[in-house]
Amino acid sequence: MNFDLLFLLMAAGGGFFAAAIGALHAFIFTGFMVLLGNAVIMAGGGPAFLNDVAFGPVFGPHIAFAGGVAAAAYAARVSDKVGGKDIGVPLISIERIDVLLVGAGFGMLGYLINLGVTKIPWFGTHTDTVAFTVVVSAIIVRLAIGRGSLFGNIDQQAAGWGRFAPKDSAAWVRYHEKFVPNSFLGFFVGLLSSGLAMLLARAYPDLAIATVFFGISAVSLFFLSLGLSFPVTHHITLIAAVATVNFLPIVGNEIGTLFIGAIAGMVAAWFAEFFARFLHDHGNTHIDPPAAAIWPATTIVLALAGVLA
């Protein structure tokens, strides 16, 4: 990936638009574009739509979602209409152009960070650079725009890990917090995503398609945006599919690979809840737990596959 001035300028528009409609809604659009991009590929087309629209300057999470997150944090500083974590609020509603321009600026920053990460030897090809950029951008937002420390207002009276315990006023997704239900969610949703990845591998043996269920999961957040208690699963489905695509040639057995994908999905669910408590819950800006789970889980999967291949 090389620097492209057109992409940089488009990233400003991507961040601006995402801020206007809200970061969450921008990511839902990402899901639709991922599904459409995969359909184009399966129909015999190239990956340009998937790469340039779904994961590029239009709806790439490192640009659009990250820009919306930054704009929400800034909006909370200059307006009492939204909070710094209100990524579901279309920020056009507060009628401040400076808020949307922050989204534009962080859209451009996201493009540059992602470009830089892709150039890092080994790591740039052994992680999800988009997810990593989302996290780096959000940390910059927390430190530069948010009030307080990186870890937020943790309970200093509690001991050890208890300082990061979620509560009603500081939580990500309350129904993902308990270990056993979260583990089952990760395992069985991962199982389903892994199975879909293998069915697609059967039908399209020349294509490594790992983002279809990720797109479905992203689109499903529409129901969460309506206020329904809907599971957040895109980190689970993506990692399960990535594990499946990479381990199927190594294992050579579909059932064994299916369980590898399920376990990978479960680990991704654990990672997301860990990072929710460690980085997101107690702060006043959004540091995305799924993105924080995706990049290290991807690195682990790709590193293990590389060693075992």
From TrEMBL:
Record's keyword annotation contains DNA repair: no
Q: Which InterPro entries match?
A: DUF7973
Boundaries of each DUF7973 domain copy? 5-157, 171-308
Indicate the transmembrane segments per the record.
Answer: 7-34, 54-76, 97-117, 129-145, 184-201, 207-228, 258-279, 291-308
Alphabetical keyword list: Membrane, Transmembrane, Transmembrane helix
Q: Which residues form the signal peptide?
A: none
Q: Does the keyword Amino-acid biosynthesis apply?
A: no
**The organism sits in which domain of life?**
Bacteria
Name used for this protein in its record: DUF7973 domain-containing protein
**Record organism:** Nakamurella flava
